[in-house]
Structure formats: C-alpha cells, structure tokens
Design brief:
Elements: H1 2-25, E1 52-55, H2 70-82, E2 86-90, E3 93-97, E4 100-102, E5 106-110, E6 114-118, E7 128-132, E8 135-139, E9 144-147, E10 153-156, E11 159-161, H3 165-177, E12 192-195, E13 198-203, E14 206-208, E15 215-218, E16 221-226, E17 229-231, E18 245-248, E19 251-256, E20 259-261, E21 267-270, E22 286-292, E23 295-296, E24 299-305, E25 311-333, E26 339-361, E27 377-397, E28 404-419, E29 432-440
Length: 459
C-alpha cells in the first residue's frame, strides 16, 4: 500500500512537472497568456468530407460572364442546405452574380480557373441590415455572405472578382463634384462578409478588384485566413477603400501566408465608433489576433488600429515582409470614440515603408453627436522588435492632450530613414529602447508616391 502511495505521488509530481514544462514552452500572447494549439493546427480543407458536391453547371448555370445568374446560384445553395449541406463548386469559367448567402452546412469551392464575378450595377444588389464602418446600418451586402454559421469554408484555387472599376470611377467623379462625400455616399458592395460565425476557414483563393472593402469579418471567432491573395490597384484608377482584411469585433483570428496589396489598409482592426461606442452591444473588441508569415505589397498601412476601433488586445504581427507600404503600424486616435490599444507586438519584420510608426489624432468626419469627448484614448504595452526596415520617416508621432501613449518597447530595431524624427518619441511615456539603431540616410534606393494619400477615400 505504501509503495502504491509513493508511486501515485511520483506520478503526480511527474505529471505536474511535464505539464508545467509544456506550458512554459508554449508561445505566449503579449499579455503573457499561452497561445492555444488551435493557431498551429492548420490543415487544408478537404471538400470530400463536406458532403455532396453541387457543381454549378450541373444545375443549369451557364458559363457566361455576361448573364446575371444570382438567383440560380442561390437556389443551388438553398437546395444544398435543405438536403443536409454540401459544397457549391464553381467550375472553370466566369459566372456573374450580385449577392449570394450561404446557409449552415454549405461551403464554397472555386476550381482553378473559376471566377465568381460581381455585377458592376448596384441595382442588382439588395439593401439589407449589415455592418459597415463601425455601424449597424442598412447597406449593401457583399458578393459572398455568411451569417451565423459554424464551420463555414471557402477554398480552391479560383478567384472572387469584385469587378470594381465602374464603382471606383463613380467614386472619384462624385468626390470631384463633392469633396466632402463619404465612403458610403457612393454605393458599393464588398466581396466577402462573414458575421456572427465561428470555425471559419478561407484559403488559397484570390480576391481582387473589390468595389469597397475586400473582406470583412464581424463578431466572429476562430477564423483562419490561409494562403490568400488579395489585390486592388493603385493605378491607373485608384481603388478607394479596398482594405484587404477588416477584422471587426472578433476573437481568435489567424491570418497566415497571405499576399496583400490594396489601395488602402492591408489589415485594419475595427469595432465601433462614437462617444458611447463601448456601450453599444453591436460593437466590440478584437482579442487574440495573430498575423504571421505574410507579404505586403503596396498598401496604406500594413496594420492599422482604427479608424472605427474601441479595444484591440493581444495582437501579434510577425515574420513578414513589407514592400512599399505607406505605413507599417498606424494607430488612429479618434477624438469622438473611447479607444484602448494594448498588448500589440510586431516582431521579425523586414522591408521598406514610407513611415515606420505613425500615431496621430484622426478626425476626418468625426461626430461627437452632442456628447462630451470620451476621456479614454490610450495606447500601451506596444512592442516593436527584431525589425530591419528602410523608410522615409521613422517616427511620425503627434503629442496630444487627446490621448496617452505609454509603455512602448523598441528592441533590436535597425531602421534606415531619410527623416528619423527621433525627437517625436518624447510623446511616449516610459519608452524602453534596447539595441535600437536609427540611421539617417540620403537615399533609400526605392520610390514612393509623393502624395500622402493614406486616408484617401475615407469616410
């Protein structure tokens, strides 16, 4: 009996030691909590395990880019949902649609050479209650919509083409006529909108030429975006406000092995806006977001907190290359919204940008709605480390009574800059610098747009 008790005791000690070692070896979020295994278990979607396959052309949909076939495609989705779910397969070819809505148990697969192309006539799109620019409003849905689903996937080697050229031209013509026109004044759809969903995986496809935001995720959790290519041009016609990925009040979110190049922010963290935005149940925080192993082409910011953002917590941006972004990290501080950006880490980044760190008040079209200005606007526990980058301006930071910046850590930074502006770091309280090398140079060997249009097309 004594031997058994000793054995149990030793087993308990070993088990405790083993699991303590595992926990200690686990990667941590910026706040010190362990990163769950979910972020590392990334398996390709196997459509053979998702039920019956519904190939569009087997159900009377024609391979014709000139015929709008939204109703026909939606009927296939609805039929699949009624019969236990399945995979809607887009075969090689081009199929013109407006908005389609996926149901529980249904999935989307685009074969190589397959294109779902959006209509460029806004009259083909319904008006629905949706989420747009930090508000729950009546507006237009995306091309591909999923709401309240568990286990939704989009996969394949095909393309979602927003066909945005006509919308872009209309926006700039309206802006020419009325310089104060907002984003939503020019009616335009997105390409992907996922809301109130969980266990979502989108992989391998190309998303391009969105009329508005390219992909938007709202109040969803356990979302993986893997190996995506998201594109929108800056010339010859600029594609305004075509954010690649907008993460809006989400948790447990992974963006990995993607290529993003758009004429606005590559990844923007949203959540709500207005003096009482933090009290509105339609709004929310972003928590536990990992953005890793990505490549960024031209964009306004690789990572932006704002402009409609309340609380961003435990954000990791790492192991990535940035080429010709206007900004690496942009913290937008709105005067009409309570904001708190904390525990954000950028690690192992290389490349070139116009501005390394940009922090200023963001007041374009803000609205206090008769309320007093919110008192809380804070960015703290921001870490930038292991970064080798060249830029025009290293630190474009505005000191202001409207917000507080504190507890930043810069570690192992190698920055070549035409304008270091290190004196701007005085705006940060309790800044810790470890092995920071900022070198002033006369030439960088690459070019940027002369005009700083990073807020171009904003509402």
């Amino acid at each position: 009996m004594k031997f058994q008790n000793i054995s149990k005791f030793l087993l308990s000690v070993f088990t405790l030691f083993f699991f303590s070692s595992v926990v200690k070896s686990q990667e941590k979020f910026p706040d010190g909590t362990a990163i769950p295994q979910w972020f590392r278990d990334n398996k390709p979607t196997d459509i053979n395990k998702l039920g019956k396959k519904y190939i569009l052309t087997d159900f009377g949909v024609k391979n014709d880019s000139t015929i709008l076939q939204t109703k026909q495609v939606q009927a296939i989705i609805d039929n699949a949902a009624k019969n236990g779910g399945g995979v809607i397969i887009i075969p090689k070819g081009t199929f013109l649609i407006s908005s389609i809505f996926f149901k529980q148990g249904t999935h989307l697969y685009l074969e190589k050479g397959a294109v779902l192309k959006g209509s460029d006539d806004i009259n083909d799109f319904p008006v629905v209650t949706t989420r747009m620019e930090g508000q729950t409003v009546k507006y237009f849905p995306a091309l591909v919509n999923a709401d309240g689903l568990d286990g939704f996937t989009i996969s394949g080697k095909g393309t979602l083409n927003g066909n945005g050229l006509r919308f872009w031209k209309s926006f700039w013509k309206r802006r020419e006529w009325n310089p104060k026109c907002t984003n939503m004044d020019e009616m335009r759809p997105r390409i992907i909108y996922i809301s109130n969903s969980k266990n979502v995986q989108i992989e391998d496809i190309t998303v391009k030429n969105s009329p508005f935001w390219s992909t938007h995720y709202y109040k969803s959790q356990f979302v993986k975006l893997l190996n995506l290519t998201i594109l929108a041009p800056k010339e010859p016609v600029k594609a305004p406000s075509t954010d690649a990925i907008d993460i809006d009040a989400c948790s447990n979110f992974l963006v990995k092995n993607c290529y993003l190049s758009v004429n606005d922010d590559a990844i923007a963290l949203k959540g709500g806006k207005g003096p009482k935005a933090d009290k509105d149940p339609n709004n929310g925080e972003n928590r536990n977001i990992i953005i890793e192993n990505n490549t960024f082409g031209f964009c306004h910011s690789a990572l932006t907190c704002g402009s409609e953002s309340i609380h961003n917590y435990n954000i990791i941006f790492r192991n990535s290359t940035v080429k010709d972004a206007s900004r690496l990290l942009h913290l937008k501080m709105r005067p009409d919204t309570p904001q708190h950006y904390e525990y954000i880490t950028l690690d192992n980044i290389k490349g070139n940008v116009k501005t390394f760190l940009f922090v200023k008040g963001w007041s374009q079209f803000f609205d206090l709605k008769g309320e007093e200005a919110p008192k809380r606007r804070l960015a703290n526990n921001i870490v930038l480390k292991n970064i080798d980058i060249s830029c025009e301006t290293a630190f474009d930071i505005e000191k202001s009574d409207l917000y507080e910046l504190k507890d930043f850590t810069f570690e192992n930074l190698n920055i070549k800059a035409l304008k270091p502006k290190e004196e701007n770091l005085d705006a940060i309280e309790n800044l810790k610098k470890i092995k920071v090398n900022v070198t002033k140079v006369d030439s960088l060997g690459q070019s940027y747009d002369k005009k700083d249009d990073s807020d171009e097309g904003k509402k």
